[in-house]
Task: inverse folding
């Protein structure tokens, strides 16, 4: 039952084939048996079982709240959850229990979803590997799959056996690992520069970044306000559409959400792509793109061509500048957002008490890791009066040029853009940590962050297995607020590629 899709489980719950409590117990047992993945920071067992019992009562009365009633889900640990510790994987918020739910969490609970726990991430979502949080790195479930073991075993070095496991990508690696290892049916991530799509590609799941403003950010602990979007991780495109339908729409607590009423939609069972124009941006054949990913990308373009779609090469000329532009804007907003963690109102407070200034400094030194402190320093440098025009204002202008590139391409008649999600498949942890966080993030965000700067919807769909037996994902980028078209194309593609299910050896009996 745990390998079924969200819709299938919802149907099974309605028909009484399984109860919400049984489902919850199964998921909790699997979380325990896959503990080595380190996907969860907090497992809210008591809360989850209570919510499952309430759901069971509703089903008994024949009054379920909707498709999500009784469905176990997980939430990245940078969304506020009332009564459940929210840490952002940082010493700064260790032990912090919020008094309120993020809007997205509240909406899921209003639909009857069962919250299993909070998932692991890079500290304050700053990273692309889910390796830099205080609770340790997340391990990719595919490291323990038959597919990977069969391909990598002959080349295995007994000395590094323990470090052969591969990363999940990040920063929503815990959520991606949780969905990939069948411990929940859907999970929330956040996406600022690709933090939902990147781990989705590495963990063989679907990762959706909706249009900026479609889903409320209220209660998502901010990284970069102008780019942050709650992301959705599921095992198939249909499930992503179901979760999106529950979360999208105006929120009076978030002034950046759309005013229009959002109409949830069902995707057609037999999507047709023959009348579409698919754009292949030439700039996404970026330096460092592996030949394997390039081949998968070309094959995907051929699939569309053979189905009657028009496939054309397009240009987004400012793409090469986007990563530098992103770094300036990201760190500037981080510096501003992190100012709230001063040790006075909530979170960690240092014992140093010679003066208020020394207490501030010690609190932030003890509470933040090097990555967060480094971004704060960079951001404050860019925001200095003498640097503001040269860096921040210039980066805002380049951001507009990047957004306009997309506008021009979509105005020219292109419906959807098809690109790689990552430069390669997941790398072993031991290789990943050889480079510093900033270098890694610069490389890993290169194909995903332009969609955040333009505020466009994008989805990563698992496409094939690499020569090492690891997942490779491709990304579709759509027009603003055209999620239905984007997901319809993604569903058609998903049906064509028939991505294989993970064969997890450690938990096959669970």
Result:
């Amino acid at each position: 039952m745990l390998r079924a899709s969200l819709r299938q489980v919802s149907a099974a719950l309605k028909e009484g084939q399984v109860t919400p409590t049984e489902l919850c117990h199964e998921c909790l047992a699997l979380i325990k048996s896959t503990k080595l993945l380190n996907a969860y920071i907090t497992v809210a067992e008591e809360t989850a079982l209570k919510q499952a019992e309430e759901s069971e009562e509703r089903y008994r009365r024949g009054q379920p709240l909707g498709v999500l009633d009784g469905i176990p889900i997980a939430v990245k640990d940078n969304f506020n959850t009332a009564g459940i510790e929210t840490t952002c994987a940082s010493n700064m918020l260790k032990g912090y229990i919020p008094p309120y739910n993020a809007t997205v969490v509240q909406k899921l609970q209003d639909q009857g979803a069962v919250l299993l726990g909070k998932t692991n991430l890079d500290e304050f979502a700053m990273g692309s590997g889910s390796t830099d949080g205080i609770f340790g790195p997340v391990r990719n479930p595919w490291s323990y799959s038959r597919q990977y073991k069969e391909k990598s075993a002959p080349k295995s070095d007994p000395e590094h056996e323990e470090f052969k496991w591969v990363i999940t990508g990040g920063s929503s690696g815990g959520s991606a690992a949780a969905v990939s290892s069948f411990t929940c049916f859907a999970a929330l991530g956040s996406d600022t520069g690709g933090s939902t799509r990147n781990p989705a590609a590495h963990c063989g799941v679907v990762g959706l970044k909706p249009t900026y403003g479609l889903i409320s950010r209220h209660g998502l602990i901010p990284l970069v306000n102008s780019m942050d979007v709650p992301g959705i991780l599921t095992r198939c495109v249909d499930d992503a559409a179901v979760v999106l339908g529950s979360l999208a729409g105006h929120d009076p607590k978030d002034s950046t959400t759309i005013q229009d009423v959002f109409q949830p939609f069902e995707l057609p069972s037999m999507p047709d792509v023959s009348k579409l124009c698919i754009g292949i941006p030439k700039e996404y054949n970026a330096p460092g793109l592996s030949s394997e990913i390039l081949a998968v990308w070309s094959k995907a373009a051929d699939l569309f061509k053979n189905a009657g779609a028009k496939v054309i090469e397009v240009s987004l000329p400012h793409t090469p500048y986007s990563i530098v532009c992103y770094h300036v804007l990201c760190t500037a907003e981080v510096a501003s957002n992190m100012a709230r963690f001063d040790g006075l109102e909530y979170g960690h407070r240092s014992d140093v008490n010679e003066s208020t200034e020394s207490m501030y400094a010690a609190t932030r030194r003890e509470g933040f890791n090097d990555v967060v402190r480094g971004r704060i320093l960079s951001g404050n440098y860019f925001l200095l009066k003498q640097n503001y025009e040269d860096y921040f204002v210039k980066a805002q202008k380049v951001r507009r040029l990047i957004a306009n590139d997309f506008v021009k391409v979509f105005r020219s008649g292109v419906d959807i853009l098809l690109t790689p999600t990552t430069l390669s498949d997941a790398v072993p942890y031991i290789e990943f940590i050889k480079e510093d966080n900033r270098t890694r993030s610069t490389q890993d965000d290169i194909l995903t962050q332009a969609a955040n700067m333009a505020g466009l919807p994008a989805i990563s769909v698992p496409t094939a297995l690499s020569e090492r037996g690891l997942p490779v994902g491709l990304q579709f980028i759509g027009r603003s607020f055209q999620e239905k078209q984007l997901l319809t194309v993604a569903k058609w593609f998903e049906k064509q590629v028939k991505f294989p299910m993970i064969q997890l050896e450690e938990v096959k009996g669970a």
